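2024-03-11 09:14:02 INFO receiving multi-entity request
2024-03-11 09:14:02 INFO entity count = two
2024-03-11 09:14:03 INFO echoing inputs for audit
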Amino acid sequence: MTLAVFFGCAFIAFGPSFALFVFTIAREPLRVIILIAGAFFWLLSLLLSSLVWFIAIKASNSQDPSLQRGLLIFGVFFSVLLQEVFRFAYYRLLRKANEGLAAISDDDSSAISVRQMAYVAGLGFGIMSGAFSMINVLSDSLGPGTVGIFGDSQYYFITAALMTLALTLLHTFWGVVFFEGCEKSRWWVIAAVVSLHLLVAGLSLLNPLYEGSLPPVYVITLLMGVWAFFSSGGSLHSLSALCTRKT
Amino acid sequence: MLKGLMFLCVLCSSVEQKIYVVLNETVPCVRLLNATHQIGCQSSISGDTGVLHVLETESDLDWILSSGPHPPYMVIMETAFFNRSVMMRMKNSSRVAGVAVIISKTGLADNFSPHTTCPNQNTGVYSESYGSDLANCNGTVWNPLGNGLSYEDFSFPVFALKDENQTQVLRKCYEDHNQRVNGSAPQYPLCAMQLFSHMHAVTDTVTCMRRTDLQNRFSINPEVLCDPLSDFNVWTSTRPLNNSAKGHAADESVVIAATRLDGRSFFWEQAPAAEGTVSGIVTLLATIQALYPVTQEAPPPRNIFFSFFQGEAFDYIGSSKMVYDMEKNDFVIDMNNVHSMLEIGQVGLRSGRSLWMHSDPVSRQNKSVDTEVSEEEGKLSLFSHPLPPSSFQRFLRARRIPGLVLADHNTSFTNRYYESMYDDAENLNVTYPPGLTPDEQLVYETDAAKSLAEVATLVARSLYLQAGGEEKNLNNITADPKIVNISVFLTASFYIGLGPRVHGPAHSVTRFVQYILANLTGTVTNLTESQCQNPSELSTENKDLFSYFWVSGPASVNGTREPFCVRASVRLSKAVSPAFELLEYGSRNYSTWTESRWKSIRARIFLVASRELEVMQPALVELTETKQKNISAKTEIMFIK
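2024-03-11 09:21:47 INFO inference complete, emitting structure
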């Protein structure tokens, strides 16, 4: 549907994460490395879960649409669980790395804190997840047509972009909260993150009933944002300081 | 129907399949070029997109051309509107992105011929120096119903919709999204169609061939831009001619019986040409079938040479090539061998039992020619008009030989659909009683078949007499209507195409005629397959006089076939315009028609959204971006390390 839609949807989906990258990560090489490694871990989890789904598909009867849909739902939930497992694995890896970094530094303290690592890792997961959700859709948005001739909603592209944006932010917030939960050994936090991720994935299966998926997901994003803010040490006091002090 | 298509696609995650419906059967109009002009249609390189609108009434025409708010439009044209005035208005408008014409019999006008009023006027025999008062159809306008659409140059794609199901899909999309409600404009999203038919060649043959030559000489990966129209003529003779002895054949006086093998229409590779071509082919085949046994039993003094010329619609490609070869001594006979000529034109629509014989008044001013022609005509009625467009005109250009052209028309064609898609079985009045299977239809004697068999009998007897045969054998020469099984030809397309370099061996119709001739005039031999392919190794067989075909044979009861070798004096001769051999691409004397090349020809439909929706999205982006910059600049204040 032409260049306007392509650029619009691309910026909606990737604009915020790109801005976060440019302003908070790009200057610190260590953060860049953690970001890319995080993206890679997400990619690994996707690879394994898609392998399982693919084998299930090939082994089943391809003419039965309800079975195929059931397998898709199973695939989605299995992928969510595997992503969280890989997030935990990444946490363990980063902790080990942190100790090593502290050992080789001059003043015996690590150059980067766990909270910062949590944010960067979450953003890495988010960017890669967004890319895989959105690139395919973006390439089709370049053509002259829009979705709808078979009865689908004509807002397909923009809702896909908004969903991707929400998912990217959610992954960032989940990264922060998850790592905090692991540090403080609060396992209910981890359980909450996993179940929220499952909930969001399940809501996306309601599409094309976009009213059923987008508003709840954005509400969850907002709540997660607040939780992540307080979990990483923010407070109402620092928030008011932000508004009054000029940079 | 569309929902059904969706359910087929449950597992495919491709967004593309949600957006586009690809139309499978596409019948485009392509670009042809000659020495000075380009004709046909062209799309831009990335396709032409337009909002669908069905042209059914005059108000639709106004909507498309002036008042509709969503130009450019892709017009779905009902049959009744496919005429010169509407197409010229579309051509001159900038609001038309393309046209898809519905090809059907409902709403078809009484006549439709996209050809010119004076076919092949510049390459016939009449010119400033020969019969100037008859040139350019001053004497007789042969195709007065012609609107010349095939020879116009359109800058937008024109496709034909022949498949009824596909037309239904388009109409449904139009009715669901694009229909006007109470006179107000339809709302977005609208149904649109994109047509791809980008042609590589431009301007004319000279330019295109020059660019192709440049490519061939300097480019590592040369790209050919256009190809000359070419194929093969089919010829045979009652006495075999030595194919390896070119030039004048000693002691041979030949009577030529000819007809054309091709047709055309506005669209590419669509040429049913029933009255225009099939009538002639079938008549000549029946003539050969009637004449051949008698010429073997009681051979007349002169040889009879039967020829089917390909490419006659495009300035006499086949016949000009044969005449050129004859003059260059590059053919089995030359012009000195030719005694006279009889050509079968359009003979399918005879009213009553009349048949007209056309001769050339200018050459008949020569006494000897006149005598021959009068003898040839015999007792039937005659009128002195100019010759209609026929291959005989090319022979006359080279030498004033006596000849006649047979036709079912006197002054102008009786064919009201000359060289169009509607010149089909119905135009020829070929109808079968209901309930016949295709096999039964093949052997059923229609009235058209009987009429053509009568003509064939007449032609065969005339040829026998002209060849000097005795009158007492004439009663044995009768054409059998059953042999005249037209229905086989009525489903074929007679467009000449591009020949062996591009499309492999000869055109299917050419091959078919060749094999029928081999069947009618050949003899079965008991050679093996390898002997059949290399007959020169055997002393009893002569590859110079005959060609040998390995035939798979009829299917027997239990499904097996017993192949055998057929020996016949049927040959193919190349039908490519001499202009391409002489490299005179701007020639005025010979045909210079070429067909452009293209990469892809396809069509698809989809929905398009409004410009507002498209523009709204970047605006949203602006909003999010500014918020981001604000917040990220202040992260240090927010978080504790």
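2024-03-11 09:21:48 INFO post-check: Confidence is low (pLDDT under 50) at residues 1-12, 379-383, 636-641 of chain B.
2024-03-11 09:21:48 INFO post-check: The longest strand of chain B covers residues 598-608.
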